[in-house]
Batch of 4 targets.
Target 1
Amino acid sequence: MSEAILIQNGRVIDPSRGIDAVQDVLVKDGVIAAVGKNLAANGAKTVDAKGLVVSPGFIDLHVHLREPGFEYKETIATGSMAAAAGGFTAVCCMANTKPVNDNASVTRFILEKAAAVNGARVHPIGAITKGLKGEELAEIGEMKKAGVVALSDDGRCVMDARVLRHAMDYAAMFGLTIVEHCEDEHLVKGGIMNEGETSARLGIKGMPAIAEDVIARRDIDIAAYLKRPVHIAHISTLGAVESVRAAKALGTAVTCEAAPHHFSLTEKSLETFDANCKMNPPLRTADDVAAVKEGLRDGTIDCIATDHAPHATWEKELEIDQAPYGIVGLETALGLSMRLVREGLFGLPRLVELLSTNPARIFSLPGGTLKEGAPADVCIFDTEKKWTVDPAEFVSLGKNSPFAGWELFGKNCLTIVGGRIVYNPSNL
Amino acid sequence: METVEKKFRGRHLLQIADLTADEIMGLLNTAYKFKDVSEREIKKVPTLRGKTIVNLFYEPSTRTRTSFEIAGKRLSADVINISTSSSSVSKGETFKDTVLNIAAMKPDAIVVRHGSPGAPAYAARIAGCSVINGGDGANAHPTQALLDLMTIHEKKGTVENLKAAIVGDILHSRVARSNINALKMFGAEVTVCAPPTLLPHGVKALGVKVTHDIREAVADKDVVMMLRIQTERMQQGLFPSLREYSEHFCLSAKVLKSARPDVLIMHPGPINRGVEIASDVADGPYSLILSQVTHGVAMRMAVLYLLCGGAES
């Protein structure tokens, strides 16, 4: 059994219970034992959190841990530790591994690997269709029994609306939410960056925003028709954000996430032809960035998820049309999200909602709260800590970040998962 | 000349925006001097003796590769050609490794032709010698734009404030992008003409006028540049047939009647006779197509000379 920990005098922010006050948090036997003022240590290890924020650990609904199959990019162990470093106590890993997580044995493999790691919890997301081919349903019931928390063909859109319709209906029997990568593959074929003024000038093949808009709208319509939930991954366009906003107003069970790069960068970053700015969905226009920010502020967008997509350095040094899509995100998510707080877009409680409370709710995951009896998944972060992004210092094997050299404010200091300290570099 | 040389030595030529209008005029003046070399019986000057130029071509090319090769050889440089079929690229070596290995053999300049936009820019960051963009995807083809400017300049005596039309597959054309940038640097008004499917979404960002009517495009223009149409675009569903394309966008003698009597007709080649340009127009009195090719050698001699710093050796 892990030792008891008393976190003292931190600014405790727990939107699940409307708490934002300087208090103590006592962790014991792997769960939150008490939250209140002047709690007695009674022999517990004490952590001085004065001047720091104590919040339920962050939960990332969208990461790629690459194992099995692409261990040179990332492993479950390195990804889980990178998550812990970033303040995440749980991550949901996408199914596009090799083999694909479209059956219970791959799910069990991932969970066995994860159990041996002293980092963030790892929740596998199962494939919607066999081999991510978008044709036949994967063995969803078997995977549910093995431990998947949601279903997605992420990286690919389920292009056949009939297949998606059946997937939503079938998954409902197991209480699983469908997570859609909204992208009409015909409209983006061969595309590298957002289609628009910058791609016109650079002569780079474009991926139009409408490829995301039309599928988001289609998926919302299908979900509304079936009265089933759908979660839209990495929302990036003004059109998709507006569709979600309208659907929510009508009571459709649609949720969505946004990635930090989609509210931090625009398509102009591609002017240097840097493959670290190549991702899918691509970096969009300033109008899209503004729409994503507004969505995060007004509740249209439910959570921040990183789409952490580690690649080997040499892969990102390939020609831009051959380099793979995606960037790492676990260790820069807090700092980039804190920019929105510092801009005055919203306060820290909303930030914790976006990074912890809401993601826990969307997939019904443990954590996301400091309620007594809840798993002791906690992070302590310093909102004022100024640091410079240096990918060489990432715990993740992936160093592919367009944010190298950025000065950010806000860094995670300590991470507790299930009552055990898994990250505490400055020995608080 | 002295100051022009010093400003260029050791630099890269990746896109027109790397140059100022003054520098372009410097290149033009240098190219005129070298044009004579190609007219002599002994077509060689010792200017770049002892210099090594590597043509690294990842795409098939006759004109550009030969042009750079002849340019280098007429300046007495050692010119080595590497194309994808004969290098270790076919063994799966990355672009980065190929560039680093060539760079390790200490060339003075590498000319990079590549299907991927930005590949020459990447090579420039790691090569440690001058890198010249010999065409990268649909991004840029700066030496083509420079030789086109020279061709116009020779005929008109100026490249200032021209009215120009570029007709054809603008979407996929690096020649169009570099020429638009170069012409506009000298105050040109540029009109592009193509079916909407062969124009980039966001074409306004190029700072050009747009028309789908070739008669309107050529009317009142100093220069009309035609672009090659590739059958591949038909397979991509961007237009229905070459027949229908040429019905609307072929520069025929009839269309040419809408043009000014002193219009210059250009084409970067290779031309499709009867598709984007009628045979009699290509061979006709307004056509500068072969003059462009001749100027290509002179302009590339100027570029190699100035970038490789031949004056000092």
Target 2
Amino acid sequence: MAFAWKAAGITYNRYLAVAARVVRRSLKDDKRLQAERRGEMDLRFAKWEGGKQGENKSLADANQADMAAHAGQSQ
Amino acid sequence: MKIVASTKLTRAQRAMTESRSYGSTSNTVFEEAETKPVESENKKTLLVVCSSDKGLCGGIHSGLTRGTRRLMDKTPGDYNLVVIGEKSKAQLSRSNPKDIVLSFAGIGKDVPTFSDAQAIADQISLLPTDYSSIKIMYNKFLNAQSYEATIVEAYSEEAIAASPNFAAFEVDEEVLANLREYALANALFWALAEGHACEQSARRNAMDNASKNAGDMITRFQILFNRTRQAVITNELVDIITGASASEG
């Protein structure tokens, strides 16, 4: 069973997040505003190597880039 | 400050109860399947420490750090660290900088959302190293006064596949990786929400104590102020009277 999104390098969590976002956006306005706050994510992260902290990056951008890099590797 | 913290605490507690049922449902699967972590040599364990960015809440972050160090001292070199939150990062980067692989910041401003947990879980599952298991360290909420550093386990694919009763669920092997990722996100969400509730309750207590201590200080300064005022008045009276008697004479 091959999934199209798996081939595009998207993880299951990302797949869920996208689906959830679509549902939230299709809600009525009053409910939508409330629901969209639950979907916000504004984290930063840094990779560490040899005891040194790397550059602080936005998690959302990095996740997207990493998944693009993984595209095509797994079926 | 205490009232602000109290309102936040109620919200955090509500979020915690909701996420707890979420996490425990996800755990039921593994309990029923009797999943056990696989003991494998020369594979490291990933330890995720869930603290937050903000201070002013007593020893809650140090408690986590201490728990982490205790665990790492038992089997040195066996753990890699993922640190969520600036506070524990600052503490752990002093003692174990070599073991940290990832650190996250920006958590703890508000009640953690599932998107937070998902994004973190994604970044963790994209790590190049293969870990035998993932342990999540968080503050367990016992009651409004006490909490303790606890570990929840997120299993690796092999561990899930090797569990004795897993066949009963009839999960295809292809989707096993999805289940693992999703379970990791669930466990993280639970840990984050519970950690957040602990932090808020600890902050409420800290603010309460701060107000009490300030009360003592206010009474002390009030007395000091009154004494000084009286002294100044007496001095001025003496001056006036001396001046008056000098001009008369």
Target 3
Amino acid sequence: MKTKTPLKTRVKISNISLLIAGTMLVVMYLAGASVYDRFGQVSTVLNLFNDNAYLIVVAVGMTFVLLTGGIDISVASTLAFTGVFSAFLLEKGLPAVVVIPLVLVIGTLVGYAQGYAIHTFQIAPFLVTLAGQFLMRGMCAVISTVSIPINDPFFKAAALGKFSWKLSTGGTAKLYYYVFVALAVLLIAWYVLRFTRFGRAVYAVGSSEQSAQYMGLNVKRVKIGVYAINGFCAALGGVLFSFYTLAGYSLQNMGLELDAISSAVIGGTLLTGGVGTVIGSMVGVLIQGIIQTIVTYQNLNTWWTKVTVAAILCFFILIQRVIAIRAERKKA
Amino acid sequence: MEQDSLLVMEHIHKRFPGVVALNDVQFRLRAGEIHALLGENGAGKSTLIKVLTGVEHLDGGTVTMEGTPISVKSPLEAQRQGISTVYQEVNLCPHLSVAENIYAGREPIKFCKIDWRTINQKSKELLKQFDLDIDVTAKLDNYSVAVQQMIAIARAVDVQAKILILDEPTSSLSTAEVEKLFQIMSMLKDRGLGIVFVTHFLDQVYAVTDRITVLRNGEYVGTYNTAELPKVELIGKMIGKEYEALESTPPAAAQDSEAEEFLRLEHAGTGSISDVSFSLKRGEVSGFSGLLGSGRSEIARLLFGADRHTSGKVCIEGKECSLKDPLEAIRHGIAFCSENRKTEGIIGDLTIRENIIIALQAKRGLGRVIGYSEAQQIADRFIEELAIKTPSADQQIKNLSGGNQQKVLLARWLATDPDLLILDEPTRGIDIGAKAEIQKVVMRLAQEGMSCVFISSEMEEMLRCCSRMYVLRDKEIVDELTGEAINEHHIMQIIAGEGETVNEEV
């Protein structure tokens, strides 16, 4: 029987985007290293992780949601709420071993509730999570409008605990322990998406929800599950962020959800769902981090970071479209 | 109750807004048989299947499987009960790999993780049974619809089901692929599966099925042994009296060659077609015959200004004009019923009335809004004239059956009182009754002086309707036939590229 052979140069949107993003990351690093003396040191790389660990966690959670074709703009508020509420409870004298699990559960439940509303009542994810965003940000202010410092010994230990070693070129390289939390989340997420039925169902739902349903996949569990996971990641990001700042403040991280989304997109995730990887999202976070670093070295206004990210985002969206269009043409 | 029934559905009721889709329908499936489920569009086949597979919930009735009553609330549950389905439109995930599409939801797990090697290997073996030797790790959307359909079938077969439902699985398959599918169906039948086979092709029904259940207008007509039911009788059962209507449609009358010319294309080209010339006369139905991809639809789009011609010229009533967009074409009295009813035709959420007047409104321009009463009048007139089955013109068009949707689209264009009506596959996937009615309307209008372009994959229909036939091959018009020269054998030869030497009038 005659069958169409597959295209010889098979184009996988995710792979190509990830490849371009990875290349871009390396090129930017090398460019930075060639211009600035200290940029080439290993500490620059480690600091990228130190400074962006919480964002990696949030971006990983966001990737789950985006893969199903959804969106969640409540994560920054959830993150801020986690910080404020943790600080509040710690101030009241609760131990960290109680506070941290509690805020993680709250984050997960907030995500779950949003996912439940989105799936059961068929409401646009944007609207539900917009409400979630206002609610959580509002709850922050209800607890406290001023920054609450964290003096808990566990938090302090977690904030300061690090590997550090002297460099032969002078200076010290540091890698904080909490970075390993972010890397562990990344690894687990990668494993879940690649090697579990739930993970593959996430891709299937994003690829075609109706097909996934007809194939007998549990669409409800997937759709609610990804928002719950995202809520958990946002809360965990909040915990990491409070290690980083040792304070909880209601106006922290306004607009962070968009950083997470843009990281995922730069890393090759399609907003229409079904395509993307968490590794890509991490690369996206690092690219934004490296731009921030260069902007700092160059002594520019930090808004230049946003301008550059905007340009890169445009570039990646265009690339993805071009690849998709070419693939369609080839098929026809 | 029959002892050997694998599945028994009794007193099945299902209502949709304004339509009773299933009314006291029954269906019995034995183990080890291929059972055809037949009926016109809107007869309730798809609804019955959706009820059985848990996509829709039944309003009344019982479903019994192997003697135990079951209630299927979702496709997942249906699968667990051993009911596996291939739907009419491919229902797989385009972004996942071929192998993954076959194993989604039931991936083998080894050491706490999905065993990709086994999945890929087994998928490869499975597809070999279908004579498909493809890269199973490639994404599904790298393959043609036909291959995707075979993959969907492979998945359904591999699920170890007791019941396999095939809803129009052959519409996108080639003859060889259909053969292969039949072999596999026979093999599964021998294994003891009950197979439900829905199709529009009656030849296929006689080729593979053991029994036939016929539905008509949401009601149960009967179940018959295929071998004991002649085709003519079967058609009679499917469409009732309407069959006589189809038979009595007069064949296209030979046209007066002196008829006035309405439109002429001279060496026109755009995109993939480079040089086509022909003329369309008033009162004549011109057929464009050729294989899929031969340029039929491209010509239709060109005539309607949907694709602008980049070379050559178009003359309407002797005057050259640009036909730069569909609006200009509409104003020149051209109407176009496109091939793809769902995506290029109907606007699902609008009512029948709104769907009908939309082209007329475009023609008049927004300065002269068609008022409610006028719109209602127009809609009612066409609902009656074309026998559109609906409780009222206020019904959303998406709730109608395919045949009735097509009639509404026809009404949309007839409302503009066109001089040229282009019909691209106007009868695809609709029932014989509606088919006959549409054909009759077209031919009546042609006699009244309208010019018509008719494109269809069904040769029989083309032969019946067209008084002039343009034959296309590889984006070119290779022959023009009239009168006696229009016969199936001759056209097939020309399409196949064997007919050029045959001496015929041109």
Target 4
Amino acid sequence: MKLYEWAAKDILKRRYGIPVPDAHRVQTPDEARVAAEDLGGAVVVKSQILSGGRGKAGGIRFAASPDEAHGLSLDLLGQRIRGLEVRDLLVERRLDIRDHLYLGLAVDGSARLPLLIFSTRGGVDIEEVPDREIFRRPLNLEEAQRPGFWPKLMAEAAEGRGLSAGVVAKVAGVAEALYRAFVENDAELLEINPLAVTPEGEVWAVDARMTVDDDALWRHPELPRFEEGTPLEQRVKALGLSFVELDGDIAVMANGAGITMATIDVLARFGGRAANFLDAGGGAGVEATAAAIEVLLGTRPRAILINIFGGIARCDDVARAVVQVKEQKGIPVPLVVRLAGTNQEQGVEILRQAGLMAYQTMEEAARAAVAAARGG
Amino acid sequence: MAIIVGEATRLVIQGITGNQGRFHCARMLEYGSRVVAGTSPGKGGQEVEGVPVYNTVREAVERHGANASVLFVPARFALDAALEAIDAGIKVLVAITEHIPVHDAMKLLFRARSRGTVVVGPNTFGVISPGKCKAGIMPGAIYSPGPVGIVARSGTLSYEIANHLTLAGLGQSTVVGLGGDRVVGLSFVDVLEMMEGDPETRAVVLVGEIGGTAEEEAAEYIRTRGRKPAVAYLAGHEAPPGKRMGHAGAIIERGKGTFATKVEALRSAGVPVADTPDQVPELVKRALAGGGG
């Protein structure tokens, strides 16, 4: 789950004492004007969307006065930035920034450890900064909690980068707090970019991004909840299925993320285009599978391709689900089913009795689905 | 020989009294795996499918010589259960459980490394050495013993490919499911290294997918140190650019992790990449005939 900037910064400030510029979250231009007045006039108006690259897409603007903040808010609210509607703005005190640092924590799949990333060339172009300007270090889970660890590590990370000892000490304090926040909130990603240094040597978290592990949300009732994805994706997610909308016309369902991706690939190889990615999971029963098929029908495809390799999932359950939907709701488009593996014979027989056939391989089924979608 | 599990493997099933544990205990016994004990806190003294149930892994180790665990414990309790198995001296931990929080997985693997425990998963279908031991939830019937090692990130897709191989007369030495989570115990490279040292394995099939850098690392290993022939299939050619993990993800992966970079890395390491799963057996036959092994 991604957190909005305002929510991530709120956590960093309130619970971890990381310096964050004063700001107000607003939803109307009038509120923006009042916020800017309160913050002394010169402010930054920031669109709150669950996506990076806001600055480059015009979602972050600078206002010299409350009137200007009002005007910019009028323009930004309701606009779509990177495909997402702007409903909230963060009106933030504008800082005089000398250095833009980058400080981030992520999960390093290769090291199987948290990864610290630091650069003195932070800001909007961080992704283009050459490797040698980026310090990376997988963190030993025990060492990262020892006293003295963070000052030493950050001194190493900042060596030769022109930061004063005082600034490095402040950065180390932020890094240590950030690590605590990363671990305590089950974050997958927690980054401050920029971590701004003012001419006076103060250090401020000007922008923050945080993604919390969905699998750990149960132990974080204190965190706010934000939904991502299209309305349809959200509805299907609530059914416990993994679903992504694509732009083709053949609805696809398979059991397992890898085989679902492979089904979409094989479909494309034979000239078809998938309307969606729907992973019904390894062991979906009749009802869950029927619900998944109904979701597919709801996308109004030209054909449906169901590709099942039964391991834990049983072919007879899938066949029963198909027949159930066919009898109760009707399936008005060509339906191509591939069944292999556990209880294949029973599944094929159930389909046959309902007047449906099943293919044995996914390659054959994909070809048939492409032909069906073309009306052949 | 095979790798990770074999004739000498004595399994304990953690979470044996749950639905999944109970069901798959029966399937593993049916296959001929030595399931010597199960655990379920507070249920010690019961039996499941004739297998004695204990409260702790330590009892299973002490009384039955269990040396490998298959873990079905629900995600919320999985970390504690896994640590218990590691501390009881279990050598191979197969963590079937899905949705284990990533920070729990990092803690689990951190401890496993310090104790030398091999962790398969989490979120894996398990590991099988056909004809010898099935430690997981894969359908046993699709495998047959033979010279091909399979290492896969994804379960069902690997079943698809194992099935094609078996139908083509190409049996398997060991099939390893790395696990679908971002942080898992074994990498492609770890398993490739084990397969290099396994006389029974004469060729390796990698079943990968987009995201992460594990396939690129595997390609680098094969290019520099691999002696046995390898073949790959990758899923995700048509996947739209996935959810980006903020800047950090882009910085970590830096030009890796896409379908194209993975295929390029593998091909330049001399690993043929199949366009569709049904092409894999033909590529393996050619690799075996090409004098590998």
